[in-house]
Amino acid sequence: MKGKVMKNNQYTAQHNKKQHGSQRDSLLEKVILVTIKRLGINGEGIGYYKRKIIFIPGALPHEDVLARITLEKKKYLEGELVRVKKKSKDRVKPIDHYNVGGIELEHLAYPAQLKFKRDVIKQALKKYRPADFANYQIKAAIGMEEPYHYRNKLQFQVRAGEHGKIKAGLYRPDSHELVDLPTFSTQTDLSLKTVRLICKLLAKWKIQPYHERQDAGIVKTVVVRESFANHQLQVVLVSRTKKIPQINNLITDLVKQEPAVVSVMQNINPQKTSLVWGAKTVHLYGQDQLVERIGNVEYRLSARAFFQLNTLQTEKLYAKVKEALDLEAGELLVDAYCGVGTIGIFLAQEARGVYGMDVTPEAIVDARQNAQLAGLTNAHYEVGTAQDWFAKWTSQGIIPDALVVDPPRTGLDDKLIATILKYRPAKFVYVSCNPSTLAADLVLLTKAYTVEYIQPLDMFPQTARSEAVVKLKLKK
After folding, report:
1. How far is CA 18 from CA 14, 74, 286, 297, 339, in A?
2. In 3D, which of 470, 469, 432, 458 has the Cα closest to residue 105?
3. With bands split at pLDDT 50, 70 and 90, how would you rate the model's confidence at 23?
4. 338 in catalytic set
5. Which contiguous run of DSSP H or E holds residue 468?
6. SS3 content of the chain, % helix, strand, coil (to 5)
7. Active-site option among 238, 367, 433, 464
8. Average pLDDT over residues 290-294
9. Is residue 153 pLDDT above 60, yes or no?
């Protein structure tokens, strides 16, 4: 009996030793010293600890930092910046001090941000390895003189705060904790002032903000779009319910206190979802569209229509697209993912005809109206996917001489790539907002095209996002 007890005690001791040993071996919560080698595609510092890669947001290349390990995986670690022991010469004091997305590079000097945005394209090409990628000409990134207050649209979630106050802002990374944002350096003063006013008016008229856990309340999101051409605003209230009580009183107060508001819309999204927009949009007050201008072309924008978020850089972007395409009068252009027709209309005077498509019906209504307002009779716009309409037009004998694609972050659809490779337009420009999907698409596109050059252009200062204009040349 005594022997059995000893054996059991011996087993227990060994078991406890194993458990304690495994806990000691775990790296979670351990604070380590790391030398940062480079920035990753999301703007996080990358270093190595015991030959394992570690990602540390807020750390910069050539820095020695103390970081607390927050995630341990077989192939990588994630860390939280504790302290910078040796600072980079490119580290600057950020204006904002919020833990939210959209300002992940604000601690990096702007010239270094531009170098990073060129480098992140090189990183993506090296990963996916499209044909002859090592010889691509990647030009210096085109930046802004003043890389703040550039966003023409604000989209803040709305929730209840303390003592009846309503807060509006963005979520902390990887959470559903809303951070109230009374200031935010990439937004304009006018849009920020307006969203704070709306929060006060929601409280005044006892219009309940959305409660996520209970799936209750009324107003989920406030969207404020600003025309840089005339500094007018369109406000969209995204609601869980069809009816917003006291909405007329709110609108009366809003337009009286902020005369720049010329349009108020309601978007109804009853679903419990991370998607902001619902299917139905209702006109509540004033104009149902906002007018913006790029160069000498005016565009009318519906509430849900896509439009580049940086108006000032958009004119530079489209000028680079125009330069790369080098259209001649007799040529047909297909403008895939056309939105409200911005690129195609900007280029239409150079071409025999422009054919564009988009999946958002409101955007196509706007595109047709924008073409009409510009006095164009050679621009044609249809609702649907790029791959379906490209195939349909080519089957009707409408074979483009030139093609411009401006896809979402997911890149080109495989069917569209197949159609491009089948008909091979002589002139081809790819406008990319995601270096990774660009590089992946080039693997297939370079079967028929060579990359003449890539022109990075910074549409989103203080973020890790990188935009680029790619000129492709048909192989002989």
Report:
1. 6, 20, 71, 72, 60
2. 458
3. very low
4. no
5. strand 467-474
6. 30, 30, 40
7. 433
8. 94
9. yes
